[in-house]
Amino acid sequence: MSKPSLRAALAAGEFVAAPGIHDMITAVVSNKVGFDFVYASGFWMTASAYGLPDAGIASYTQMVDRVATLCRTANASVIADADTGYGGLLNVHHTVRGYEEAGVVGIQIEDQEFPKKCGHTPFKRVVPTIDMVEKIKVAIEARKSPETLIIARTDSRQTDGFEGAVKRGLAYAEAGADVVFLEALESEAEMREACKRINKPMMANMADGGKTPIRSKTELIDIGYKMAIFPSATGLAAAAAAETALRVLKEEGTSNSPNSKLFSFAEFNSLIGFEEVWAFERRWARDGERSAK
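-> structure tokens emitted (293 positions)
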């Protein structure tokens, strides 16, 4: 099955809204709902797989494995967080090749020092602009397909101020980044000004609970964005639903309660492919097993 092209979508003027997919249960549910693009967040994939914070703890090997699994599971095209490229220039080259081979259509690389931190938490530090410019150029040279877009993120809003972040965004655009991402802008005015001044497709991060004000798709288009990721929505929703179910079980002693909304077990089996397994088993059952069924 051919998956949507991110480059073609942006060229056609389509607004790309990509929900964060933090685990493979969410991936199969997103297949049911239907999205053209989804986002593999380093924060949420690290949290769901290892219960650890987004603080440069997960390695390239761990992340590319999770991303490859998402690319196999999701019907949508995957835009993936590749942190800092997991090291120097050679690491960036290796990361782009690995993510591209996994099936990713957009690779996001940021300008933080290693180990990096979540963009909406304190104590971030950024590398010199020239270092990130070189990473962007290496990433562009490393990709094998023109369909693979390089998304350049700067985390300098909190270290260098808004003007410093815009200056870096302009430099990253000039270096050849396909999409520019100014992380953790702090007002709609900043968002509008950044989109006005940087002449490349701009990506917004709608991180619920973060520093950037949450705006709807319609509002983001009006501001000037071409893309937006919603990395926290499914992870926070899943955590809230899990807490509710666990509290009901603890307090009422049962999961069969009107206070606990559960997904259909039969439909879930279908979503993860049990019907194909059962069809295979019926086809290859021995005569006695076949008659018993």
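The first strand starts at residue 16 and ends at 19.
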